[in-house]
Design a protein that fits this description.
The protein is of the alpha/beta class. The protein contains eleven helices and seven strands.
Amino acid sequence: MSLNLSNEIDYKNWNTFFYDTFEDFFIERKLKNKLEVKKYLYNLKDSAKTLWRSYRSKIVEVNYDDPLIQEAYFFRYCVLYHSTIFKVLNFVKDFYRPQTDSQYLEYSFISAGPGSEVLGFFNWIHKNFPQELETYNEITLYDKSTWGIPRKVITKALEKKLSIFEGYRINSIHKDIFEFSYDLDDTNQKIVLFQNCLNEILVSEGSKEEIFLILQKISNSLVSGGMLIFIDRANYSHTFEFLNEVETRLKKESFTQIFNQDYLSQINESRLDRIEIPELIKNNLFTGESGLKLSLRNEIICKIFQKK
């Protein structure tokens, strides 16, 4: 038997994220047929439970360098985050100003993880503002972990999406949040997105003021109409307080906060449609016991600052 998942009974109903990545993931994993896929997913259960328990603690500590933790993350959270960025951007679609007068644009994703939000962002741009992709695009994913197969598979899907346009480059930079800001000097940033990382960095002593200095550099690097986006988990009070302070400071820097509370409430009340998730995952990995229930809801805090 050869691996071919397009004959799955629910294939046409898969979420876009899995439609773009699911089969390629198992090909990269060198699995040859569906029986091997089922066995692999079954054996991933312990790592999926470990990851789930880590996010239940007050201070999140996850070994993102463990390949099996990375792969459990890919199946449990990537589809959720891909869907979330799509929903967030739809609410601010009328504010988005596509740049067609620049020789190149840059897009930076901080704590990019495997890159699910990156793929979601460019799927959204491709659908709504493809003219912006006609210019040369420099796309950079910053993360302190390398993310192995999940990053490789998502990058491959992104390359397919962008291949019909004139030019682009995708960079994977192995740096933590306190090291990347110097890379932004003399750049032409359209989007800088911080994703699901603030809780982990704000627990470091003295990190808050250092982040504000980084945000100053970012504000200088963004083009007019460019966006600084924060999407993070909603259940950490210090994250909420930090972003409110960011808003106060950026209002003095010619930025407008364009994502309102009503948008946030609608996103936090929504769930993924279960039929969009491949039956293979539901039947062999997320089978219902503690720690093995697929995350269908992503309660977030989000702020989007647009440069005037």
